[in-house]
Amino acid sequence: MRKWIVIGLLASLAPMVGCGDGTSDPSPNNGTVQNNEPAASRTVQGRLTAEASGEAGVESKAITASRVDENGDQEEVATGETDADGKYSLELDAALTAGTTLLIEARDGEQLLGRVAFEASATAEGSVGAPPITGESTAEANVWLEASASGNVCAACTTADLAQRIDARVAAALNASADADVYAQFATSVYAGLEARSAMLLHASVGATQEQLDAAQASSSSAHAALTTSLSASTSDAELTAAQATYVEAYAQAYLDAGITTIQLAEAAQAEAGARASMTITADPETTAQIVANIESTRAAHVTAAVNAAFEAQGEANAEVESAGAELESSIEAAADAGADAQTQIDAAWASYSATVRVEVEAQLDIAQQTVLTGMDTSFEAGASAYATALAALETSGAAAGSVTALATLKGAIVADANVDALVTAGLSEEAAGAYLEVVFHLHAATAVAPN
After folding, report:
1. Helix axis angle, 182-202 relative to 210-233, nearest 10°?
2. Measured between alpha carbons, how far is residue 53 from residues 217, 235, 351, 412 in Å?
3. Cα(411)–Cα(341) distance, integer angstroms
4. What is the radius of gyration, based on Cα positions, of the chain?
5. Exposure winner among 217, 235, 289, 362, fewest CB in 10 A?
6. What is the mean pLDDT of each run of 10 residues along the chain (452 residues)?
């Protein structure tokens, strides 16, 4: 059903490694954001981490700084070398303008050790602080460069969105993959998913507004800029980790603060997962497992939050449902290390969660209401099958729009007015009927779409 393709085995360490901790800032939206406000200095300072350089060490490594335009084209502007601690200070050949995207690369001879791409802005002292070069920053930069070169950076996407979808484990898998096309394929997948996410939020069946989405993206981009500043000032792995954790929380809060609800975010996450499931990824089983588990972890976090909220809205939190959600997320995280067995484990985790939640939904209903809901199952299953078929048939160029259309159709089939009315006639309140049907919709969408 899904188009995730797993081929080959991990053969060798690819020479391209490194972009920083979901931390780099390779220009918001469609590449570089430029204006004519000059930075006060041409000095760029940063450091190469031992995590990125590996056995090569951090001392006396060649550093190159390049300007990058919105098409991914690079212009070298400075070179230098790291000191004994991996630190470097570069004097650029011309003053920066605020919003310029810089790419800093570290090499040991011909071997690329790591990269970081970020939007340069002068500090109070006039110098530009670059985030550290790490494994995560390298993966982020590679994905962004591939997307820019191919024109796949969608207008609705931000750098903050990209940073949220490349964690340390995915970065390590991408950087270690022997497949030369993995960054380009991952970029296509990520940006198709992000486009679907935004489109689903704005779909009439979900109801978020453009103003809310703009506010959320502005706030999350500000949080990412703050992350870049924190990373630039970091001096230890602990500080990197703390800065990233702060950012993750701020990113999630940005959407809630904009008035986008937990349920709306869950529907957007379903559309994102559906679009990404239609993408072809040719990689070794270990890399594919990390990517799929990352997609499903994002979906699971949003779906479990929405399901928990639906039960709470009808009276009180459901301990069984919350426990099942925690188990789902834990099982998906564990599946990331399962290689070729990852998809099987993820499918089983979703099936177990779905079964538990369905039991708890029916426990809230009397016999007559249960009978009505059970009578709808045949049509629900048909809708889920049609949904899975639609996703499997998606082409790369239409993945985002196709995923949104298919998901909205499935929702319409399950959370239909006729179904709500039937449950109301059986004695359930309209609010409860809608809430429980929404839960059932998420269960069918998740079990129909798990990528493989």
Report:
1. 140
2. 33, 16, 42, 51
3. 30
4. 23
5. 235
6. 35 33 43 40 88 95 92 89 96 75 95 92 68 95 88 78 91 91 91 94 97 95 89 88 93 96 97 89 90 95 97 93 98 96 96 98 96 97 94 86 96 98 97 97 86 44
